[in-house]
Amino acid sequence: MKDNEKILILDFYGQYNQLIARRVRENNVYSEIVTFDITVEKIKEIAPKGIIFTGGPSSVYSENAPKVDNKIFELGIPILGICYGLQLISQTFGGNVARANRREYGTMPVNIDNTSPLFAGFENVNECLMTHSDFVDKLPAGFKKIAYTDDCPIAGIADDERKIYGIQFHPEVNHTKNGIKIISNFLDICGCKRTWNMSSFVEESVKALKEKIGDKKALCALSGGVDSSVAAVLLNKAIGKNLTCIFVDHGLLRKNEGDEVEKVFREQYDINLVRVNAKDRFLAKLAGITEPERKRKIIGEEFIRVFEEEAKKIGKVEFLVQGTIYPDVIESGVGKGQTIKSHHNVGGLPDYVNFEEIVEPLRDLFKDEVRKTGLELGIPENLVYRQPFPGPGLAIRVIGDITDEKLNILKEADYIFREEIAKAGLDRKLNQYFAVLTNLKSVGVMGDERTYDYTLALRAVETSDFMTATWARIPYEILEKVSSRIVNEVKHINRIVYDITSKPPATIEWE
Ligand code: XMP
Fold it and tell me: Does domain 403-498 have CATH number 3.40.50.300?
């Protein structure tokens, strides 16, 4: 995003940093997160209109406290420090940061000086989220106080001359009333014109991709998910038939899904599309396998093999397109915890293929921005708002060994569940909902006959980040309808259960 005005967010490892970036973008200004130790030379190169220091878990007094190069304050670029950011600015300019007896956490009324440009348009008291132990108890030189609470004598500072500001509370979270307006006021202080939006993104990306790729060839692994679909359409707009998309249909997609994806890309976009129907290959490899991680590994490896074979047929390609998005970029590199599941993304693995460079046209976008870009490009809503679907597909929703018959049972049942959820208007409210074919058989009675058939589990969750999730309180009437339709319409299912565990302790998928 070379031509756009930018806000640079210096990351001190606070938990809400992505939110800060989003709030800035919601104000139509492009923002980027970089680590706190970015050099001043690099900042000059980027030439942001403003800089935000995030919060973070450290104390400015701790041994390895993250610090910035003080020359940053001489660049004449407006700065806003949030929480730790405020404390760092205060310490730098000779203020004092004290340790509180107890941690202040929660939403509370903050007295604010609404004559400050940072609080323009506010009442003189505003509910804000405070979460901190340290606090500033002596103003730094050249700053005035613009906010305080009963427990925190200095909750906001300003040097209007140099346009350096600091606040103890978090404007980026919804708990802070009108927090986005504080960010917006800071953007005014920075003199931002607010021209960033998805249509300018599309325009600029197409131009940049054209320049970069020219007449060379690019290859894209299309999964039918929103990220790879948007990436493919963007590339198609830039380089037309020089893009080839390979859609490996492993037969583990939901009912009709493969055909729907194919239809959109062939009919609506006239994209060079190779669909590989590889179900038999995948099922043969998966036969008798029950262990979830083995399933993932087999599918990941087989995917690469199929993709490689197809890519070879196309001949030389210079670029491989990937649908990496901004949260993936930020999260990679940060220390990862224990592996719970290996999360094979079958769209993103082919590093054996012969190409020179990877293109990631969405690496600056958050998920909701990818969706907006998709709509901007005319991709149908059902694809743009498709719920996340795991790369290994239904293989990890058929518990135990996978057979064609079990897959078909699951596809039908899952389809009915999705249909009823959509009818009830819950499809955008629930973040993920699907059926799982358990490996359990139980006795039932149908008419006068005894049955001995599968138990199907329904799963639906609400979540914002998929790291934690709450089981969804779907109204009983809807569950009842789904249950009765499935046992009546899908052969070999005679019992339905609803999963009422959240994550943690369960995970969203069963395997
Ligand atoms: P869990 O089950 O770990 O799932 O709570 C969190 C999110 O990740 C998805 N998921 C996967 N996605 N490959 C993927 O691309 C995988 O192997 C995989 N396993 C789980 C899951 O659907 C949920 O959205």
Answer: no
Ligand 1 center from residue 390 Cα (angstroms):
5
Peptide bond into 153 cis (omega under 30): no
| Catalytically active residues, by annotation | 83, 170, 172
Closest to 412 in 3D by CA, of 490, 321, 349, 510: 490
* Protein residue whose Cα sits closest to atom 11 of ligand 1: 390
Question: Which of 398, 509, 510, 511 has the most ligand 1 atoms within 8 A of CB, as the residue to mutate?
Answer: 509
> HSE on the CB side for 213, CA within 13 Å?
31
The residues of the chain that CATH labels 3.30.300.10 are 403-498
pLDDT band at 336 (very low <50, low <70, confident <90, very high): very low
Q: What is the mean pLDDT of residues 112-128?
A: 97
Specify the CATH number of the domain 198-384. Answer: 3.40.50.620
Is the full-model pTM beyond 0.90?
Answer: no
Confidence of residue 352 (pLDDT cuts 50, 70, 90): low
Q: How far is it, in rounded angstroms, from Cα 93 to Cα 109?
A: 27
Shortest-distance atom of ligand 1 to CA 431 = 24
The mean pLDDT of 71-84, rounded to a whole number, is: 97
- Whether 61 is in the pocket of ligand 1, judged by its Cβ within 6 Å, is no
